[in-house]
Specification:
Length: about 220
C-alpha cells in the first residue's frame, strides 16, 4: 500500500490490521525523529550558554533535517491512509469461515501492540518536551534573567500525552471491534475509528507546526 502497489482489494481483517501496523510503524519513526530533532535544538541552545559556537550550526542543521520532514510526513500520512482505506473498503468481504481463522486473533493482538508502542513513543516525546522546559528553567535561574521562549513552551507536552492516551483508546477499540467481527463472521470497516485517528494526526501535526514556530522565534 505504502509503495503504491496494486494489491487485491478485499475486506479481510488481516489486511486492515496489516495496513494499521504499517502506518503505525511509520508514525512511530516520525515521532522518534521529531524528538531527536528537539534534542538537537536543546544542544544548540546549550552551546550558546556555554559560549561554544563550533558545533552549533551542526545541531541546528540536524534539528531542521529531523523536524521539518517529520511534520510533513504527518500531513502526508492522512490522504495516503484514507486512499488505502477506501481501496480496501471497495472490495468484497471474506466468508465467515475466513473470519474464524486463528491467525486473525493473533494479527489483532499484534496490531494492538503496535498501537501501544506508538503511544509509548508519543509519551517519550512528551517526556523530552518536559525535560526541555526544565532545561530552560534551570538556565533562566543561572542567568538571572527570563527566557522569552520559556512561557510559550509550557504545557506543549500535554498535546502528546493526550495523543498517547487516544492512541491507546483507538488500539483497544480496534482490538475489541475485530474480536466482535470474528464472532459475527463478517468484516466491518469501522470508518469512524479511522476518521478519529486521522483527525488526531491532523491536530498533532498542527501542534508540531506550532512548536517549530515557537522554536523558530527563539534567539538562541
Amino acid at each position: 500500500m505504502l509503495l503504491r502497489k496494486k494489491l487485491l482489494a478485499v475486506r479481510e481483517p488481516r489486511l486492515y490490521l496489516s495496513m494499521e501496523r504499517s502506518y503505525l510503524a511509520l508514525l512511530k519513526f516520525i515521532i522518534v525523529a521529531f524528538g531527536a530533532g528537539l534534542l538537537a535544538r536543546k544542544a544548540a541552545m546549550a552551546l550558546v550558554f556555554f559560549h561554544d559556537q563550533r558545533l552549533r550550526p551542526f545541531f541546528l542543521d540536524l534539528y531542521h533535517l529531523l523536524t521539518i520532514p517529520s511534520v510533513a510526513g504527518i500531513f502526508l500520512i492522512i490522504p495516503i491512509f484514507w486512499r488505502d482505506l477506501r481501496s480496501l473498503s471497495l472490495g468484497p468481504s471474506v466468508s465467515a469461515k475466513e473470519m474464524l481463522d486463528p491467525r486473525v486473533h493473533f494479527s489483532a493482538e499484534r496490531t494492538f501492540l503496535s498501537w501501544t508502542r506508538t503511544a509509548l513513543s508519543s509519551l517519550a516525546l512528551a517526556f523530552v518536551l518536559a525535560k526541555f522546559d526544565f532545561f530552560l528553567r534551570k538556565f533562566s535561574l543561572l542567568l538571572h534573567q527570563p527566557i522569552p521562549l520559556l512561557h510559550r513552551l509550557t504545557g506543549t507536552n500535554t498535546l502528546f500525552i493526550g495523543f498517547a492516551v487516544v492512541l491507546l483508546s483507538l488500539g483497544s477499540w480496534g482490538l475489541f471491534a475485530t474480536l466482535y467481527d470474528i464472532r459475527q463472521g463478517e468484516c466491518a470497516t469501522h470508518v469512524w475509528r479511522y476518521r478519529v485517528f486521522l483527525l488526531l494526526l491532523f491536530l498533532v501535526g498542527v501542534g508540531m507546526l506550532r512548536l517549530l514556530w515557537l522554536l523558530g522565534g527563539a534567539r538562541q
